[in-house]
């Protein structure tokens, strides 16, 4: 059975801290798939992950007009935002698979839009809005070898 960790955060700062803790645990080549409606905190969590990875400078923002933005660091972050993806096949045109086997960590916002494109193994984080300041966040290891 697949285990999941269920958390409730009560502020953006708390969600960012959670991201930071996750970021500290990630290794090069890891993929984190974020799903959840607009405003659920995916970008806030990603900012925390970037901090946890030790990425400095250029603050993480929603990459509005690009599907992928790279943040350099000892372990670089490849931030995918699939909000503007019109059809999943579009991913093939950007060679997305190469990022999965790179020296960086991949974080994908709106991963539910590209379910069939995810690698064999990834960390699934589902966010949902409880009310103005509370978010429910579930964290689960998916894929081969996950139990
Ligand atoms: N507990 C919380 N965690 C994360 N964001 C929160 C929380 N409470 C309120 N917010 C607000 O919700 C919004 C989340 O935005 P964002 O991270 O850009 O969402 P997404 O990337 O999922 O669309 C921000 O305006 C943030 O201030
Ligand atoms: Mg976002």
CATH architecture: 3-Layer(aba) Sandwich
Number of extended strands? 7
The CATH superfamily title: P-loop containing nucleotide triphosphate hydrolases
Integer-rounded radius of gyration: 14 Å
The portion of residues forming beta strands comes to 25-35%
Strands of the widest sheet, in order across it, are 1-7-6-2-5-4-3
Low-confidence stretches: none
What features would you describe in this structure?
- With 147 residues, the protein is an alpha/beta fold.
- It is 20% helix and 31% strand.
- A seven-stranded mixed sheet has the order 1-7-6-2-5-4-3.
- Strand 6 (121-131) and strand 7 (134-143) form a beta hairpin.
- It binds adenosine-5'-diphosphate and magnesium ion (MG).
- Magnesium ion is lined by residues 42-43, 62, 109.
- The site of magnesium ion (MG) has 4 residues, from helix 2.
Question: What are the salient characteristics of this protein?
Answer:
single chain, alpha/beta, Rossmann fold, seven-stranded mixed β-sheet, 7 strands, 20% helix, binds adenosine-5'-diphosphate, binds magnesium ion
Short description:
By secondary structure, the chain is an alpha/beta fold. The termini are close together. The protein is built from 3 helices and 7 strands, in the order E-H-E-H-E-E-H-E-E-E.
Write the layout of secondary structure elements.
Elements (H helix, E strand, L loop, with lengths): L3 E6 L2 H14 L5 E5 L6 H12 L14 E4 L5 E5 L15 H4 L4 E5 L11 E11 L2 E10 L4
Parallel strand pairs: 2-5, 2-6, 4-5
Antiparallel strand pairs: 1-7, 3-4, 6-7
